Amino acid sequence: MIRRFVFVTEGDVFMQIQFDDDIDGARSQGWAAGLNSSPTVIEVTDNPDVVPGWTWNGETFNAPNP
To answer: Quick one: which of 7, 19, 43, 52 has the fewest CB in 10 Å?
Structure first.
């Protein structure tokens, strides 16, 4: 199934994303769950180490414990 999401701010659609469950079902289900949970978006251009698995405490990012 193709899943399609749009990003809205102040009533305006400014971006869309879509992905296919048939290509990577487990990963796309996780993406859909995250996108449906009203995520917080934070630019991390200056911190390329931040990847899935890290956490955000409201002030800083934290790497997962090994």
So the answer is: 43
Euclidean distance between CA atoms 61 and 47, whole angstroms: 9
**Number of domain units in the chain:** 1
Boundaries of domain holding 52: 2-62
Tell me, yes or no, if the pTM score tops 0.85. Answer: no
Q: Which residues pair with 7 in a beta bridge?
A: 15
How large a percentage of the chain has pLDDT more than 70? 100
3-state DSSP percent of the chain in helix, strand and coil, to 5: 15, 35, 50
